[in-house]
Amino acid sequence: MGGVPDDGARRRSVWPGSRHGDVTMTLQYRGMLIHVTHIDPAWLPHKDREEPFDLGVALDLLPVMVSCGMNTLIVDVEDGVEYKSHPEMKRHYSVPIGQLQILADGARGLGMDVVPKLNFSKSGRNLHDMWMKPHWDHVSWLKDIDEYYRVAGDVIAELVDVMQPAKFFHIGMDEDHYRSLDQYVDTIETLRAKVLELGLRAVVWNDSCHYMKTKIAQVHADKCRAAEEHISKDIVHILWDYGRVHPEIVKRVHDRGFEVWAAPGQTPEFVRQWREALEQNGGNGMIMTHWIKCCERNREDLTRLLETAGPGYRA
User: Fold this and answer.
1) Which residues neighbour 218 within 8 Å (Cβ) at sequence distance 6 or greater?
2) How far apart are CA 304 and CA 210, in angstroms?
3) Of 34, 251, 270, 315, which has the fewest beta carbons less than 10 angstroms from its beta carbon?
4) Is the pLDDT confidence value at 213 over 90?
5) What SS3 string covers 260-312?
6) pLDDT band for position 8 (50/70/90)?
7) Phi and psi of 181, rounded to 5°?
């Protein structure tokens, strides 16, 4: 894959409006991430009995989001739908992909931007891209890398065709332990190119708030921070930390020429503090997260989060 080139050799286009002077006074994007499904160490023990995504619950949440001033819906899809391009990836909890069209149409009807999300992070611990099975290998992940990227392009294109996002596609890339810096940058740029071909901008998680926080986090946090020097400036970075606020990191990533959002966690106080950090340091978005399935048994928890922390998202 070659060495990571220097900034001069790897010059990329800067997205229009990426710098708004010294301060962004209003967050342009305020929204919520919901899960058709997800894969991580907390979810994996229950995958064999995971229920399907509940479209009715998702549709009922949309007006609650709007009442909180939200204008962006990110949908974590993974293997939670039946892909027509790759039916071999169907699971017992996969729902017809047409449900995503209904959801996206409902969100747009309320004035919300829709952002599909997949995760291509490579980690033996977090297993975020295991949803790609059988096009996934736990150990020899470079063995069929061309096939991996072909499948990635197929499902990205299918989700874009079904959901018709206007601006963004989230490619995940958090908690990546397996790839070197060079491989990590190359993966982001390869996926960014597939997204850009469809007229959209790539969104990634930026883990650098967790630098020096734990030994496990050190690997992916350090990698994210280093990758900022080498990846395209039109990529949106979402910082996340549910226990601390980092205005200095917002400023650093913004000053490097990126659009910066944040995921502030679930307490109203952290929402307030993160919003202040974003607005005073050039940030442009804030996304609510709750890492639980969008289904009937979680309806109350998802609604309660919107009611308690949601007011902090109002324009």
Assistant:
1) 210, 211, 212
2) 27
3) 315
4) no
5) EEEECCCCHHHHHHHHHHHHHCCCCEEEECCCCCCCHHHHHHHHHHHHHHHHH
6) very low
7) -60, -45
Assign 160 to helix, strand or coil: helix
Summarised one tens digit per residue, pLDDT across range 60-104 is 999 999 999 999 999 999 999 999 999 999 999 999 999 999 999
Whole-angstrom Cα Rg for the chain: 18
> What letter represents residue 181's amino acid?
L
Per DSSP bridges, beta strands 81-82 and 72-76 are unpaired
Residue type (1 letter), 112: M
Name the β-bridge partners of 96: 82
Report helix, strand or coil for 228: coil
Query: For residue 25, which amino acid is it?
Result: M
Identity at 208, one-letter amino acid code: S
Q: What six digits make up the tokens of 262? A: 């944040």
Q: What integer pLDDT is reported at residue 109 of this predicted model?
A: 98
Burial-class residue 205 by CB neighbours within 10 Å (0-12, 13-18, 19+): buried
Helix H or strand E segment including 57? helix 55-67
Torsion sign (Cα): 228, 193, 260, 80: negative
Residue 253 class from Cβ within 10 Å (0-12 exposed, 13-18 middle, 19+ buried)? buried
Instruction: State both tokens at 14.
Output: 């800067």
Euclidean distance between CA atoms 157 and 258, whole angstroms = 25
Identity at 98, one-letter amino acid code: G
**Dihedral sign for Cα atoms in the order 302, 307, 311, 315:** positive
* Residue 165 and residue 115 in contact, taking contact as beta carbons nearer than 8 Å: yes
Element (H, E) at 67: helix 55-67
Q: What are the C-alpha distances in Å from 113 to residues 49, 102, 106, 203?
A: 32, 14, 11, 14
Nearest to 257 by CA among 284, 280, 275: 284
| pTM as predicted | 0.91
- Asked if omega into 268 is within 30° of 0 (cis), the reply is no
* Tally of CB atoms within 10 A around 30: 24
